[in-house]
Amino acid sequence: MTITLPEPKEQVVPPSLPENPEISKHKMGFWRSLQQRTPLGWLQLKKSKSRTLVAIAGIAFADLLIFAQLGIQAALFESNTLLNSSLNADIIIRSTQYRDLSLTNTFSRRRLYQIQSIKGVQTADALYLGTVVWRNPETRKKTQLTLIGSNLERPAFDFPEVRQNFPKLQQPNSFLFDRLARGNYRQVITQVEQGKYPSTEIDRHSIQVVGLFTLGASFATDGTLIASQNNFLRLFPDRGAGEVTLGLVKVREGEDVRKILAQIQAILPQDTIASTQKGYVEFEQAYVQKKTPIGLIFGFGAIMSFVVGMVIVFQILSTDVNEHLGEYATFKAIGYSDRYLLFIVIEEAIILAMLGFILGLILTIGQYALLAHLASLRIAMTFSRFVFVFFLTVVMCAGSGAIATLKLQSADPADIF
Q1: Backbone angles phi, psi at 121, to 5 degrees
Q2: CB pairs under 8 A, 24+ apart, for 45-54?
Q3: What is the pLDDT of residue 16?
Q4: Model's pTM, two decimal places?
Q5: What is the chain's Cα-based Rg?
Q6: Which pLDDT does position 30 carry in this prediction?
């Protein structure tokens, strides 16, 4: 006996009601919903083109100021240690009263004779540093330079130009000049490159520029001159040969620098300090950053630039929110959350941040090139500064957007209508 079952009836699926965008967002996933949503923030910015351009210009100006403050600060820190980091030595000896190149103090040359007795020390040479006022051979104006007196047999700087020109310094009143000195020295540099030796004076002493080298200006002085120890001491008659500014110690090949340093520190009295080349540079940098107003002034300037940018963006976004208050109230009335509305404003803020940062970056590159030319500073864009300022720009704009929506988040749609 065959039993025939009735065919199942076709199931009728009731039409589904449209889901709230917030609920469907969680069902579809964040990225899919992001692709399907209407870019309201971008559309609002496109609608008010003049206001958007003002906001971009304001952010770019703030970024330009921040880049300028951080760039000049870094350039000044680097310029103040250019000479220190260029010294050809493994260990540096200095006075305990030494602070930086503008306040060097001296110690007795006998300390270097003591160091030379240590096994493993190859040489211990004296370096003389001083500040002189020289007359620009081209403009005849006086300016301040750093003067270095070095041992001609073992140059204090391992620059090819310095090594090549050292034989010329054996002549009395002969000096090497820094081609990157701050000021107008084009004619002087051209004459030296052509084999001519321009003459000028330092404290009523006639001198000749017999060669060039490349170092750069510092925050304290406009450039550097290199001379023999004898020519240095001729310009400082009240200073004896036994008063040394720095001791340059070279360790024999294969010897442990740290081990030799410990032996030197053990025999030196309390009037001198020994450190590695790296330690000496770090000491100089720390002094400039912590004991001088450079770090405080430029750090404060960067903070104020950030605040200025935040105020500009807040004013723009706050005005935009107030103009679209009715539309936002409609969104809230039909079920959209405050977070959704906040996302629209944050979207505007992020777009403004990116456009403003790009414009500010372009302006900054030109600004750095101009400052490097006019102030003779080694100022350039670095990746770390690029990332840091971009992060500040995003925080500045996103924070301003969040503050601009506070009024909207606390408002009742009924009150708004």
Answers
A1: -85, 125
A2: 45/348, 45/351, 45/352, 48/320, 51/316, 51/319, 51/320, 52/352, 54/316
A3: 42
A4: 0.72
A5: 34
A6: 42
